[in-house]
Design brief:
alpha/beta; single chain; four-stranded antiparallel β-sheet; five-stranded parallel β-sheet; elongated
């Protein structure tokens, strides 16, 4: 097992690392959230042990970034002296999987780490959804009401942009910039791809999700 400890107190890191090494666990360390984010760009871990109060970037904002921006699915165990209900709600809302209050027994920490590692990576990270449409941005699997939807690469990018904005209208130029970037398509390409998206997501369903707002753009409606 390989874990990452994110903690600004060197003594705590040393104590935890020494204990876990006796259990044949490999430990990497970061002293703040920015350091953790940097390590996670190139390293894979079974569990992240995260303090909350740290310099540069605290544990709550780091976890939130890892879940929503980096799409990190590694289980996170918060290790902190903050023990109010509000603190725990904030930690779990940010993407935490467990919460252990200082001071703690090292054996309990080990058992919690082991339990999270056995549970494996989070399965809900990288999903965006609106109404009954769910997109897994990592696997690019799209479903509506649990039914798989087949899309081309361009159609997937269009639907992803619409879901991220839903139910707000996204204008045609913004959609073109998002999907094609600096290489805009022919004048009819967007319309053709949107038509394909509409057919794919609305087929077999009585309720249409994709709506064209004439003169403004497109949106998904509930």
């Amino acid at each position: 097992m390989k874990i990452l400890i994110v903690e600004d107190n060197p003594q705590i890191i040393e104590t935890i690392s020494d204990y876990l090494s006796l259990e044949d666990i490999t430990v990497d360390c970061a002293y703040h959230g920015e350091g953790a984010i940097t390590l996670l760009k190139t390293q894979q871990y079974d569990v992240i042990v995260m303090d909350i109060m740290m310099p540069k970037r605290d544990g709550i904002s780091t976890a939130s970034y890892l879940r929503t921006q980096a799409h990190c699915d590694t289980p996170i165990l918060f290790l902190t002296a903050k023990d109010t209900l509000e603190d725990k709600v904030a930690a779990f809302s940010a993407g935490g999987d467990d919460y252990l209050v200082k001071p703690f027994a090292l054996q309990e920490l080990y058992l919690r780490i082991q339990a999270l590692a056995n549970r494996g990576p989070r399965q809900d990270i990288g999903e965006i959804c609106f109404a009954d449409i769910v997109i897994n941005t990592q696997t690019q699997v799209v479903t509506r009401d649990s039914h798989p939807i087949k899309l081309s690469r361009i159609q997937f990018l269009i639907l992803q942009a619409l879901v991220k904005k839903a139910p707000t209208i996204i204008n045609k130029q913004e959609l073109i910039d998002t999907v094609w970037g600096g290489e805009p398509p022919s004048s009819d390409a967007l319309r053709s791809h949107v038509y394909g998206v509409r057919n794919a997501i609305d087929k077999h369903f009585s309720t249409s999700r994709l709506e064209t707002i004439h003169g403004k753009g497109y949106r998904l409606k509930a």
